[in-house]
Amino acid sequence: MATYVIGDVQGCYGALLRLLEHISFNPDVDQLWFCGDLIARGPDSLATLNFIKSLGSNAKCILGNHDLHFLASQFGFSKLKPADQLQQLQQAANLAELIDWLLSLPLVYQTANQQYLMVHAGLAPEWSVAEAVKAADIVSKKLAHQPEKIFATMYGDTPALWQDVTTEQQQWRFTINACTRMRFCLPSGALNLQEKGCPQPQTTLVPWYEFWRTKPHPELFFGHWAALDGFSPVPGIHALDTGCVWGNTLTAYCIERQQRYSVAGIT
After folding, report:
1. What are phi and psi of 228, to 5 degrees?
2. In which band, very low, low, confident or very high, does the pLDDT at 202 lie, cut at 50, 70 and 90?
């Protein structure tokens, strides 16, 4: 048995199939974990969702910012762009079923033994791991049962600090921003949601994972940050978005072998 954690697929169904062939994925015994952003901008989001959903218990998935944006659009709280390449998904015969399945996915996945944790973007510096899991679970339960309430308040960059949260709606927004949008923070730990590039030593912005260098945490896996090209300098924190949708690679990390595997993305 092997467990493979896979970075942002973003509708690159062909690359996903090549990656599974490369790792000799056996659906009878192996398990796939997906770091979110299953869809959007790639050429075949519908096939990607149908395939991953068909894996059943062999797949563990979390939501990314693109997945949430698509869901919000289906409830009338956002608009998709042609570049999202989601027209085929929007017209799918099983669209309602796929929406229900996406709404059932969590923001964070942690194993029962608390040894491993997967999140799309990262964990806010102010949180402990337990606080992060609790905050994410609150949002996930609300998404599953009252998604409109989440989407009505999801968009926005404030509050930037967990300590400044004063309402339930702010709690949801901060949690979604940290778990699905964050890359950098200010030295205070405040979320910066604008900068998307590579870490630069001459700036005041700090990659979120640097705050966890000295904090206790399980082995962490995250996607979202293609500019890192799969590199995180903090031991036990693994970056897995290697820019498949931008023509780079799609990457999987085998937990048992502690080894990475990559295949070419869109060509």
Report:
1. -75, -20
2. confident
C-alpha–C-alpha distance, residues 229 and 40, integer Å: 19
Structure tokens at 69: 């944006």
Distance from C-alpha of 19 to C-alpha of 6, rounded to nearest angstrom: 9
Cβ neighbours for 77, distance < 8 A, ≥ 6 positions apart: 148, 151, 152, 154, 155
Please report, for the chain, the start and end positions of each structural domain, with discontinuous segments joined by +.
3-264
The three-state DSSP-derived secondary structure of the chain is CCEEEECCCCCCHHHHHHHHHHCCCCCCCCEEEECCCCCCCCCCHHHHHHHHHHCHHHEEECCCHHHHHHHHHHCCCCCCCHHHCCHHHHCCCCHHHHHHHHHCCCCEEECCCCCEEEECCCCCCCCCHHHHHHHHHHHHHHHHHCHHHHHHHCCCCCCCCHHHCCCHHHHHHHHHHHHHCCCEECCCCCEECCCCCCCCCCCCCEEHHHHHCCCCCCEEEECCCHHHCCCCCCCCEEECCCCHHHCCEEEEEECCCCEEEEEECCC
Q: How many CA atoms lie within 13 A of 265 on its CB side?
A: 23
Q: Which residue has the tokens 């929406």?
A: 99
Instruction: Name residues whose C-beta falls within 8 Å of residue 76's C-beta, 6 or more positions apart in sequence.
Output: none
Residue 267 pLDDT exceeds 70: no
Parallel/antiparallel/unpaired status of strands 191-192 and 184-185: antiparallel
Identify the architecture of domain 3-264 in CATH. Answer: 4-Layer Sandwich (3.60)
The string of pLDDT tens digits covering residues 128-180 is 999 999 999 999 999 999 999 999 999 999 999 999 999 999 999 999 999 99
